[in-house]
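Known limitations

C-alpha cells in this collection are predictions and should be treated as such. Users comparing against experimental data should check residue numbering before alignment. To illustrate the layout, the record for L-threonine 3-dehydrogenase is reproduced below. The input appears on top and the generated C-alpha cells appear beneath it.
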Amino acid sequence: MKALVKERAEPGLWLTDVPEPQIGPGDVLIKVLRTGICGTDLHIRSWDGWARQAIRTPLVIGHEFVGEVVETGRDVTDIAVGDRVSGEGHLVCGTCRNCLAGRRHLCRATVGLGVGRDGAFAEYVALPASNVWVHRVPVGLDIAAIFDPFGNAVHTALSFPLVGEDVLITGAGPIGLMAAAVARHAGARNVVVTDVSEERLELARKIGVSLALDVSRRSIADGQRELGLREGFDVGLEMSGSPVAMRDMIANMTHGGKIAMLGLPAQEFPVDWARVVTSMITIKGVYGREMFETWYAMSVLLERDLDLAPVITGRYPYRDHEAAFADAASGRGGKIILDWAA
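Generated C-alpha cells:
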C-alpha cells in the first residue's frame, strides 16, 4: 500500500510502498479516506529538535483521519465492516491507576499514533477497537478527518463553564478557531481571538467571533476597551504556546479568572506568578482529549449545527503532499486535508 513515511533521520517525507498492516483479535483494519495535517506532522517533516528525540525511523506518520472499516478481529463485537470511523490517536496501557479509574487521557504510558507507532497517512491503518470512534450521526468526511484536533479544541474550551462569560483565545490556528466556534456555540458572551496573521484572523471573523485582534498592532487591553469590558476576561484559552501570549493573557484576566492552556511552548519561560496568586487565577494544562467523553461532546455539538466548515481551507490528493504540507506550514490558513481516495 502507499504511505507517507519518515524514512530517514533528516528533513522530508517520502511517499512509498509499505506492507499493509495486520490486525489482531481485538483490532480493526480501516481503509483511510481523508486525513488532516497536524502541527506534529510538520515537526516530523522538518525534523526539528522535538522530532529528533521522539521519532524512530522508518515511521508511517499521521494521526488525524476518517475511514471505512474493512476488517475486524475475532473479538470485536461492536464495530462492523462498512462503518465510517475516526480514531483516538492516544493508545493507553489500560492497567495503570488512571486507566483503571477511567481517566485514560492521563495514562503515563500513552503511545501516539503516527509518533510511537505507524500512523494513518496511508491507504490502510490498524487500531485497537477500543480506540475506534464510529460516527453514528452523519458527518462530512472533511470534518470527520479532523475529529482529533477538534477534540483538543472541545476539551480545552469546555474545561470551564462558558455561558455568559467573556472568553479570550490566544492563537488563531486551526484548534484556536475551532475553540472559538465551540465557545460561541456554548453561550459565551464575548469571544476575542488574537493572532498576528491577518488571514487567520479573517477566518476567526467568518466564524463570528466578537473581535479578531491583531496583537502586532493593538493590545488585548485595547480590545477590552472596544468591547466595554471593565474587569478583564473570565476564561482564557491559550492555544499558541507563545510566552508573550500567555503573559498577556494573565495580565488581562479578571480576579478569579480561569485559563486552559493547550499551546505547547518550545521552552521554559517566566510567568508573573504574583499576579496569578493575587488575582486567584486558575491555570489548567490540557493535552489531547478525554476518552471518550470529549468525543461524545464533539458529536453532539455537530448534531446541533456547530459549523466548522470555515476552519478547513485546503484539500489535496495525497500524491500532492508536498504542496499540502507547504500550505499547512505557511501559518496563514486553517486545516489542510489529504484525500486518500483521490
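For this record: The domain at 153-285 is CATH 3.40.50.720 (Rossmann fold). The mean pLDDT is 97. Please report discrepancies through the issue tracker.
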